[in-house]
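Subject: two folds for Thursday's group meeting

Dear M.,

Sorry for the delay on this. The cluster queue was jammed most of the week, so I only got both jobs back this morning. I'm pasting them in the order they finished. Each block is the input sequence followed by the predicted structure tokens. Could you check whether the formatting survives your parser before we put anything on slides? The first protein is the one we discussed after the seminar.
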Amino acid sequence: MDITLTPLAGVFVLKPKRLRDSRGFFSETYSRRRLADAGLNVDFVQDNVSVSNSPGTLRGLHFQKEPFAQVKLVSVVQGAARDVVVDIRHSSPTFGQHVSILLTVEEGNQVFVPIGFAHGFLTLDPDTMLSYKVSNYYSPQHDSGIRFDDPRLGIDWGFDQASIMTSDKDRLLPPFDPQIEYFP
């Protein structure tokens, strides 16, 4: 597995090896041992799948508050998505900064998102399916997020804002507030 650092400490792009032949490929997409060998010791407890029918579907920016905060391992199973991770650790030198990663089936890359980050994605192909492992169970009372289009974050989703489809819940999320200590 290849591991690439991002400008945000703790956020990594993982690329599992693929064994290719005339039929296609085989890939081990998750191995606790391989992650531990890379210094990423995580006990994932739940797998989630998200399917978006149309390109331009945006989900995020989400996170869960303590004590239900989650580490995520995100990958695209079908289609393509622009994955965005925002550092919301108040004491971090990159607080309020983000990284954008293109996830595709062809690349087979994944994003490792530690606790202390908001996460979202925008689909680029029809019928895009994302799979993500999480280290804690979902808790509606601890579900939180920030606006995907907050100008203070300056995220370029690479898509016309007027044609982005998102939920009412995500459109009503509060803007990013540098005064809030989302995570220490």
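Second protein, same layout:
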Amino acid sequence: MLLYLHPDNPQPRTINTIVDCLQDGGLIIYPTDTIYGLGCDIFHQKAIMKLCRIKKLDPATAKLSFICNDLSDLSHYTKTISTPLFRVLKNYLPGPYTFVLPASKEVPKIFKNKKNTIGLRIPDNLIARTIVKELGHPILSSSLPGNDVEEYTDPELMHENFKHLVDIVVDGGIGGTKPSTVIDYTSENPIVLRRGLGVWPEDGSLENEVGG
């Protein structure tokens, strides 16, 4: 199913249809502030396993992330956020960044990895955040299968290519081609794991911002 949502004023009835799909264990393709993502409910194990089969991933070792609605939502899925870290998150989010942080007890066991970390993201995209807000908790997010850039940008083409793998393709307009910038913030010195759309200072330039 291909569903259109207005990027600045998502239609509530269509949002509810998408939320119902997620709660029933469905998979969706949805827009973010970077590339389109493949998502499901983080608490629906069958949906998680289906997503991982499509991507040929192990949920305990895969580099997956949670899409959150706001900082309050994000804070449930990581351990205590220090004041300096909160300032950084508030400065960069919503935005095209994924922060790898220590996982809290709220993160489902299926995602527990050796480092006990989780990628957390608040995209600057009203459609994605509205879906999460109405669902009541984050959605799991991964990139789409395949390497063709067009498959990540045109909703109609995505629907044609992936309609047999997912339940809903959310049309929020043409998507981007660069993923988010990923920052490992599990220690005092943040490490850029992937440079994407988000502009991030070079290593060491955050000394004053994070309190040394």
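Two things I noticed about the second structure. The domain at 2-194 is CATH 3.90.870.10 (DHBP synthase). The chain is about 25% helix and 20% strand.

Cheers,
T.
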